[in-house]
Amino acid sequence: MTNAELTQFKTRYVKNLEESVIPFWEKYSIDREAGGYLTCLERDGRLFDADKFTWLGARELWMWSKLYTSYRREPRWVDLAQTGADFLKRYGRDPRGDWYFALDRQGRPLVEAYNIFSDCFAAVAFAEYHRATGDRESLEIALATYRRIQERKSNPKGRFTKQIGSTRSLKAMALPMIQIWMAEEMGDLLEPGLREAVVRENIDQVTSLHIDRERRAVFERVAADGSHPFCMEGRLLTPGHALEVLWFLLRTVSRRSRSAGLAAGKAGAANTTGAAEGGAAAADDAALIELLTEAVLFTAERGWDHEQGGFFYYMDYEGLPPDKLEWDMKLWWVHAEALCAFLISYQLTGRSEFLEWFRRTDDYVFSHFDDPEYGEWFGYLHRGGDAALTLKGGKWKGFFHVPRALLTCIGVFDELAAAAGGPPPEHSQHDGAKERHHG
Predict the structure, then answer these.
(1) What percent of the chain has pLDDT over 90?
(2) Across-strand partners of 93?
(3) H-only helix segments in 48-135
(4) 93 by DSSP, 3-state: which?
(5) Which helix (H) or strand (E) holds 295?
(6) Average pLDDT, the chain
(7) Residue-wise pLDDT tens digits, 17-29
(8) What 8-state DSSP symbol labels residue 330?
(9) DSSP conformation letters of 377-388
(10) Phi, psi at residue 418, to the nearest 5°?
(11) Of 386, 248, 400, the residue nearest 336 (C-alpha)
(12) DSSP string, 396-431
């Protein structure tokens, strides 16, 4: 990728983040009456439901905090984060300390704490808010929530589980995926050694069970031995989840490899054993990066709609009828995660295939999902690429996948430029996010 192309991409992504995505959520999502965040927003920001979904509130809290800690020290982003933190502290947890799924506008509970995914996002959100503000209570909430997740992870839905595991027990990829992301995001806030232990355990599950190199597929659910039961769940492929977990793993392995290299360099200066161990670890990580980037490629090739463009939401490995009626829709988050997976794969390998996939996905995103008139991205497209729903947020879509992907890609553009020996690619500077005006 030339420096000119890096500059072009970075300019586009900074502009989309600062002039489209951030202003939309800042203008319409903040509940200045009851506190917290509103997410059920039509194309033009009109509210169509005032209920609040804890996992989306936690995601938004994390995103405002992350923008402040990792992008720019914009004071109002901390204020917006505080809006979510105060509301969730007051209303988000049940008497056991588990996080409700949904609340009404005033914070009264609507849906029980039936799954630990709300807790996962709450842990990461309060950890990042602590980094942004130094708030000790938030750190305590993050760590207490994280410990509770580890207690519940073997049975994440508890009494709300519908499946009878003794008949057919399947391992899902969603929990290892979120565990890896949590461990990386919380980082040194966790107890010493815990981060790496969690990372190792969950990398092992994904690479040994879900990634099937022979079948060239990443399976959403597998049996405990890695086999694929003859049923719709056993054949289920979710390209978006696959690409998301793969870029998480690539980032994790890259970080771990850099850390091991530094440690090995210090050890090698004192003895040859340390240098040998470091070399072996580097070789293992190189092999793992090769496996993960190979999986990115075969996921892309299988998941792309070669007739009408874009990535399918769900697929059946055998091409049999999937039970997901929305299987052929094109969703915002799938393409946001694909951008990260392809760009990071290109960064780590330099292979042109990944750059081509990034360009292809970028072209689809900005010609189909991006809404230059009202800001933000559409969430749900029909297979042909027209909007199935005009909403910009809802029960499942919030201020998370799009800004996280844009922020991640902007960071990689800078890293690519630095690796080439040049300064970060220039872009139009923005003095804060500009408010959009619509006729």
Answers:
(1) 82
(2) 99
(3) 54-70, 75-91, 117-133
(4) strand
(5) helix 272-303
(6) 91
(7) 999 999 999 999 9
(8) E
(9) B--EE-TTSSEE
(10) -65, -40
(11) 400
(12) S--SSHHHHHHHHHHHHHHHHHHHTTSPPPP----S
What lies within 8 Å, CB to CB, of 58 at 6+ separation is 84, 88, 92, 99, 118, 121, 122, 124, 125
Find the Cα–Cα–Cα–Cα dihedral 404, 410, 415, 420, rounded to 10°.
Answer: 150
Q: What is the pLDDT of residue 345?
A: 98
Distance of alpha carbon 220 from alpha carbon 234, whole angstroms: 8
| Strands ordered across the beta sheet of 109-111 | 52-53, 102-103, 109-111
Q: Count CA atoms closer than 13 A to 394's CA, side-chain side.
A: 13
Domains and CATH numbers, the chain: 23-159+392-422 (1.50.10.10), 171-371 (1.50.10.10)
Residue 274's CB: how many other CB atoms inside 10 A? 16
Residue 310 is encoded by which pair of tokens? 């874009």
Structure token pair of residue 294:
């190979």
Give the whole-angstrom CA distance, residue 31 versus residue 22: 15
Q: What is the pLDDT of residue 432?
A: 36
- State residue 162's pLDDT score: 79
Mean pLDDT calculated for residue range 63-85: 98
Question: Which phi and psi angles does 173 have, rounded to 5°?
Answer: -80, -15
| DSSP labels, 70-90 | HT---HHHHHHHHHHHHHHHH
Distances, alpha carbon 44 to alpha carbons 48, 63, 390, 393, 403, in Å: 11, 21, 9, 11, 18
DSSP string, 162-195: -S-TTT--EEESHHHHHHHHHHHHHGGGSPTTHH
In terms of Cβ atoms closer than 10 Å to its own Cβ (0-12, 13-18, 19+), residue 309 is: middle
| Secondary structure letter of residue 327 according to DSSP | T
Whether residue 8 contacts residue 424, with contact meaning beta carbons closer than 8 Å, is answered with no
Task: For residues 351 and 37, give the distance between their C-alpha atoms in angstroms, rounded to a whole number.
Answer: 41
Q: Measured at the alpha carbon of residue 168, what is the angle toward residues 164 and 169, in degrees to the nearest 5?
A: 90
Q: CA of 386: how far to CAs of 335, 347, 360, 389, in Å?
A: 15, 32, 18, 9
Nearest to 255 by CA among 316, 183, 150: 183
Of 343, 434, 439, 427, which is closest to residue 13 (Cα–Cα)? 427
pTM greater than 0.85 (yes/no)? yes
- 63: its two tokens: 């995103």
Confidence of residue 94 (pLDDT cuts 50, 70, 90): very high
What does residue 103 show for φ and ψ, rounded to 5 degrees? -130, 160
Closest CA to 348 of 204, 246, 427: 246
